[in-house]
Amino acid sequence: SDLLPCGIVPISDSINGNMDFSEIRDDRVLIYAKLTRAPSVFTYKSQMTVSGEFVVPGISAQDMYNPSINALVASDKITVSNNAD
Questions:
Q1: Mean pLDDT, to the nearest integer, of 60-65?
Q2: 19: how many CB neighbours lie within 10 A of its CB?
Q3: How far, in Å, CA of 63 to CA of 61, rounded?
Q4: Percentage of the chain with pLDDT > 90?
Q5: Partners of 77 in beta bridges
Q6: How far apart are alpha carbons 3 and 57 in whole angstroms?
Q7: What is the rounded distance in angstroms from the CA atom of residue 29 to the CA atom of residue 22?
Q8: Which pLDDT tens digit goes with each residue over 3-15?
Q9: What is the pTM of this model?
Q10: CA distance to 1, 22, 55, 67, per residue, from 25 (Å)
Q11: Summary mean pLDDT of the chain
Q12: I want to staple 5 with a disulfide (CB 3.0 to 4.6 A). Which of 26, 41, 54, 59 is the partner?
């Protein structure tokens, strides 16, 4: 589950990676996949609709059938500007 701050809109049909199912909602991207100890990479494109400084919530992962298997990535900050430089 990748929660998105206001002003960031995920682009439909842009999710890539070895997954079983994905879903784009207004405020998050959900990816369902079988995970192993090998690294997994999932990508998607998004559009910034406003400028400003935003806190990006951490990404979380959890095994659907065994919730004790989980991970959480720390939140971070991003800055979006209208500069054409």
A1: 86
A2: 15
A3: 7
A4: 34
A5: 55
A6: 6
A7: 7
A8: 988 888 999 899 9
A9: 0.78
A10: 10, 10, 19, 22
A11: 88
A12: 54
